[in-house]
Amino acid sequence: MTVLSYERRTAEVVAQTGLLISHLTGAHPAAPVPSCPGWSLERLLRHLGETHRWAEEAVRTRAVEPVSDERLNNPPRHHDGDLAALGDWLAEGATRLAETLRAAGPDAQVWTPGPGGTAAFWARRMAHETAVHRADAALAVGAEYVLAEEVALDAVDEWMGFGTVPEVYEARPGAPALLGPGRTLRFHATDTAPETAADWLVDLAGGEPTWHHSPGGPTRHQSPGETAVTVQAPLTDLLFLLYRRPTRAGNVVIMGDMRLLGLWLRRTGFWLE
Q1: CA distances from residue 32 to 38, 43, 204, 226, 245 in whole angstroms, order as listed
Q2: Domain MDMPI C-terminal, which positions (predicted)?
Q3: Greater model confidence, 2 or 62
């Protein structure tokens, strides 16, 4: 599988922002965003714009400790809800972030809220943050959403990496354990070529989670019954499932331990809450 380059991820921040802005024509700022309960389209734009500026500040200043995320959680109002003006503001922030990332280079040491500690983390995280929020905006206005296969693959890989951090698998008082014998999950994209390796095997049977690609998927290498739970769906729907976004009706097939899948999705999605 081809891994997206630093430059491609940086470029996607701007590209995905531009596509999101294209959804705003004729939209109402108060339009609800079904995939972000309680949010309006305006609120979504303010959140994403502040997120870009948050990341840009971290990289530009080479932050060595956490940068306050207050603006992300409670984004101030801008431009009195004018979507056209908000779109310009959003584009400005995305462009500034991309310029800062290019100037820093992938190996620049900087605080990150997840594993990595370099600007490379921020390029990847902001590319996929923007792509998913573009999906939220498209859903809010009823627009078509198409994500390039290589971008979606990289986004799922990023999620799988997040699923191995201690916050996911460490024991919690009163909470069911995530790790245990025989606990394996497989996620298989049904709309990609076998050589794409759009198949992910998550192993929770050891002392900590691990994951790897399994080219060809369960239909060629393993029956669904050999894993505790198997999920098969088109690639974009797999990504939406991971991010707790609506999937297209009938596109997701789940075989096996639904409770384990639900637990894993909740634990790996702790950072969405």
Answers
A1: 7, 9, 37, 42, 14
A2: 150-261
A3: 62
